[in-house]
């Protein structure tokens, strides 16, 4: 099946979620992060995702901004960072995460070839709009789809259903791209073609489906279409 | 409301899930685990739980024995352990996990006071029966309830519903005990009275409900009733 539509996860895939903790740690007001920022970045992300899955299982949805604060609060306590100013700065930076260096060029290439392009993310509309604007990639995207429109997080089928509803395309004409192994597996199980951006060289997740392609960054995505 | 029924999570709460990797590492045939068994125990557990939540969100249930193998396979690859004999031994030990030292006495105390006692676990019936038998705690338990009867993992309401269906009790006459912060929070959100056994001194999970009691091991449980 010819790919007509290329859909990207946002956090970790187009945007570098570790950048907030790293950038704050480099600022003179946040020396409390100097030694612990990698642990905070890791715990923050892990808890943010864990809470998204738990809320989806229990039917207790909240938006991703709440999860982002909840995950950070756990991570700060676990790493003994108590300064409210540090918390505020980390949250502020989450609204202006940098895109990975190759992301704008890849998106531009896809658009120039007539491929539909979109983000499909757990993020709230406000968070996603801020990140897209900050990274200056809005002109290469046909749409930014947020799970807030369906009220549940990935990997629920109701989230992946949003792509067909928006673009009128069948499942296997979609290439879904995610750096989150579980998201790539979830999308593969749903019926999309999938590419896992395995930047960290992690083992493949043992789930109910496997990604069709594994790449080390976004550069190879146009070659898959 | 008077507590009539005390329900325990199994893995991590009554049974020490880190014991399998630790015990195997101490055996002469498994020196490949010498330096990495703590990382394997951590990754194995993390992936086992992650996969349980993801499968529950996506409606792709499998039993906990499959998840246990899937999580271990990820953990072994991440820690560069390739010996099939080591894998087999770790899985074998998961069927005979030791109970925490205080567990039998606490269960016996509850039974002597006429409290209904049960396990409510993600584990498969066969796994749970083996663990209960191995730890010799069956005579202190009125029942062992497995999520396999409802086909979805915690923290789905359908799992917690099994307690009322079995014992005919209202929600807040149940004390639910778990060492998993997310499980204690999930049960609290469901409507049980809850105790979180926080053996590791971890921060409380920022979820939609908080446990009613936090204890450092099982010793204090009878005092809560």
TrEMBL record, chains A, B:
Gene Ontology MF term list: (S)-2-haloacid dehalogenase activity
SUPFAM superfamilies: HAD-like
Keywords: Hydrolase
Reaction it catalyzes: an (S)-2-haloacid + H2O = a (2R)-2-hydroxycarboxylate + a halide anion + H(+)
Pfam family, one: Hydrolase
Enzyme Commission number, as recorded: 3.8.1.2
Residues spanning the membrane: none
InterPro entries the UniProt entry points to: 2-HAD, HAD-like_sf, HAD-SF_hydro_IA, HAD_sf, PGP-like_dom2, S-2-haloacid_dehalogenase
EC primary class: hydrolase
PANTHER family: HALOACID DEHALOGENASE, TYPE II (AFU_ORTHOLOGUE AFUA_2G07750)-RELATED (PTHR43316:SF3), HYDROLASE, HALOACID DELAHOGENASE-RELATED (PTHR43316)
Biological role: Catalyzes the hydrolytic dehalogenation of small (S)-2-haloalkanoic acids to yield the corresponding (R)-2-hydroxyalkanoic acids.
Family: Belongs to the HAD-like hydrolase superfamily. S-2-haloalkanoic acid dehalogenase family.
Database matches in NCBIfam families: HAD-SF-IA-v2, HAD_type_II
Name of the molecule in the record: (S)-2-haloacid dehalogenase
Naturally occurring in which organism (per UniProt): Yoonia maritima
